[in-house]
Amino acid sequence: MDTYHVWCDLKEGVKDLAFSGSIGTYMEHLKAEGLIESWRLTRRKLGFGPPTLGEFHIAMEVKDLAQLERAFQGAAVREGEFEKRHAAVYSAVTNLTVALYRDFPDPVRKNEG
């Protein structure tokens, strides 16, 4: 599995529970379309964490980079219900930081020789 991580802050005036609802609607749509396997939304607790990372963290698990690319392509279309759900998320956030991680060791990893 690969995990696509997003850290962000909310724009001024955006309500945390409204954001949570928007994320849930968008992520469940991606999952229903087979574009991600699972997702999770977390929020920094007690101020712990590097100041360069946002207050909110979204982790999306995908089987492989091909599945992630299909999710990106869906977002790139910018029309219909997909865009409506996506816009409700990206229009609410600022200070975006992203990363891509993989399970380790990979299932295809050979023993060291």
Give structural notes:
- This protein is an alpha+beta fold.
- It has a single domain, classed as Alpha-Beta Plaits.
- Helices cover 35% and strands 28% of the residues.
- The protein contains 3 helices and 4 strands, in the order βαββααβ.
- It has helices at 16-32, 65-76, 80-90; strands at residues 2-10, 38-43, 56-62, 93-102.
- It has a 4-stranded antiparallel beta sheet.
- The longest helix is centred in the first third of the chain and has 17 residues, at 16-32.
- It starts with a strand and ends in an 11-residue tail after the last strand.
- The relative contact order is 0.28.
- The mean pLDDT is 92.
List keywords for this structure.
alpha+beta, Alpha-Beta Plaits, globular, 28% strand, four-stranded antiparallel beta sheet, 113 residues
Name of the level-1 CATH class: Alpha Beta
Strand content: 25-35%
Number of structural units classed as domains:
1
Q: Quickly give the structural class.
A: alpha+beta
Gross CATH architecture = 2-Layer Sandwich
Poorly predicted residue ranges: none
Order of helices and strands: EHEEHHE
Distance between the termini: 25 Å
